[in-house]
Amino acid sequence: MPSVVEPIQPTISFAMHDFKSGWFVIYTKPNHERRIAEQLEKMDTIPFLPTVKKLRVWSDRRKYIDMPLFPSYVFVNLTNVETYFDSLGLKGVFYYVRDGENIARVSESVINNLRMIVGNFTSEIEVSSEYLQPGSILFIKEGPFTGFSCEVIQYKGKQKILVRIELLQRNILLDIPVEYLMGIPAEADNLNNVPNF
Predict the structure, then answer these.
(1) How confident is the prediction for the chain on average, in pLDDT?
(2) Residue (of 165, 16, 168) closest to 82 by Cα position
(3) Max Cα separation, the chain?
(4) pLDDT tens-digit profile of 79-95?
(5) How far apart are CA 69 and CA 174, in angstroms?
């Protein structure tokens, strides 16, 4: 299981031989995610900070504001090892999430799924860090995710799509109308050819 620990110490081996470009995750000080994403953009790096709208209530008003989907985490697409080391020097950056000895890589499909989720769902997104039992694999036949397979569970008395983000040990739970779901069609028996969450 991935662990969140201190930054990788610079080594010749990591810098010269092991680095491959791709998506990674930075762990930040609380409430520094947006600032760090902006600084990463100025470094000609592609950050991704998934956000959701949350209702904030003050004594004199109520307002929906964009909040990070995963507080204290910013995804970043690194193309070279120099940017890795430069980004560690940004104010508010604690470290890169690691998986054992190496910084943990995030697959392009996880990033694409997160982009689709935050682009198509608004306030119905819930994030949980609790362990959830495996659910049923169903097929989405209507709506913005038509053609996708997904894991569906009963959660707090409702059917929810479950998207597991193993690296962060988080689960995304999404409301979906029951009529949008069906069993996996016979022609899609090989789920390797069906896009999924």
Answers:
(1) 83
(2) 16
(3) 57
(4) 998 999 999 999 999 99
(5) 13
